[in-house]
Write a structure and sequence with these properties.
The chain is α/β, with parallel strands linked by helices and about 240 residues long. The chain is about 30% helix and about 25% strand.
Length: about 240
């Protein structure tokens, strides 16, 4: 098993420049955000974890040390582009890969493990983590067919009024068959308002290719909360203190 941790962001809304730190090194209870993530996926060996770095990458690499692999994303052109930057390091690998984020410190180890277990047990080519919430945040909605299978992920801004009523959202954490993922990356398009390549589009590409896509859901949880603002950071600090 390998993992890719996306950690290239600047964190403008977190006032990271003021603190002279990239987003993933901002502290929650005196620890870098990314350290919580790496602790939670420590069932994967450090040498099998590839960290995608960008903004202030030297600081990230110095903080985390040389036990991990690093891929550089020179320009932040979306989550799909970040994974593209790992191609050289993933070449020839024929196993499964977990993709997660360095700014999501609340996801528990058991959640990652259950996601991986579901993926392996089902034999799927892709398994994504979803959350079911009574009042969902502005995340992509999980659209399912009559058979209950995932058919699409629709970003909230693109949702119809009916789709906005869907309670299940995409968290953005995935397990992929690495070979199929690397092959599929070439099909990602940046034809969106941000001109970015989104990993969110990959399950749809898999479905269109006839590959199997499964989901694992968590309910009414704060786990998938990402840190984007000072308020988010304070919320995560309080949640982490409860553990």
């Amino acid at each position: 098993m390998k993992a890719i941790v996306l950690a290239a962001g600047k964190g403008s809304r977190l006032q990271s420049e003021k603190f002279n730190l990239p987003k993933v090194l901002r502290r929650a209870n005196d620890r870098p955000l990314i350290s919580y993530v790496l602790d939670s996926i420590n069932f994967i060996a450090p040498q099998d974890i590839e960290i995608v770095v960008g903004y202030m990458r030297e600081k990230v690499m110095e903080e985390l040390g040389n036990a991990y692999g690093y891929s550089v994303q020179e320009e932040q052109l979306g989550t799909g582009h970040a994974v593209m930057c790992t191609r050289e390091h993933m070449e020839g690998y024929d196993g499964q890969v977990l993709i997660c984020y360095g700014d999501m410190p609340l996801v528990k180890p058991e959640t990652y493990k259950k996601l991986v277990d579901k993926h392996l047990e089902s034999g799927a080519h892709c398994t994504l983590l979803t959350a079911i919430e009574e009042n969902p945040p502005a995340y992509g909605r999980i659209v399912r067919g009559a058979d209950g299978k995932l058919t699409n992920i629709v970003e909230e801004k693109d949702c119809t009024p009916e789709q906005k009523l869907i309670k299940e959202v995409n968290v953005g954490i995935y397990v992929f068959d690495a070979k199929e993922l690397m092959a599929g990356l070439g099909e990602l398009k940046n034809s969106n308002a941000q001109n970015e390549y989104y990993l969110t589009d990959m399950p749809q590409i898999f479905i269109e290719k006839g590959l199997s896509v499964e989901t694992f859901a968590i309910e009414n949880s704060t786990e998938y909360f990402g840190v984007n603002t000072m308020e988010d950071l304070e919320f995560c600090e309080n949640e982490l203190k409860k553990r």
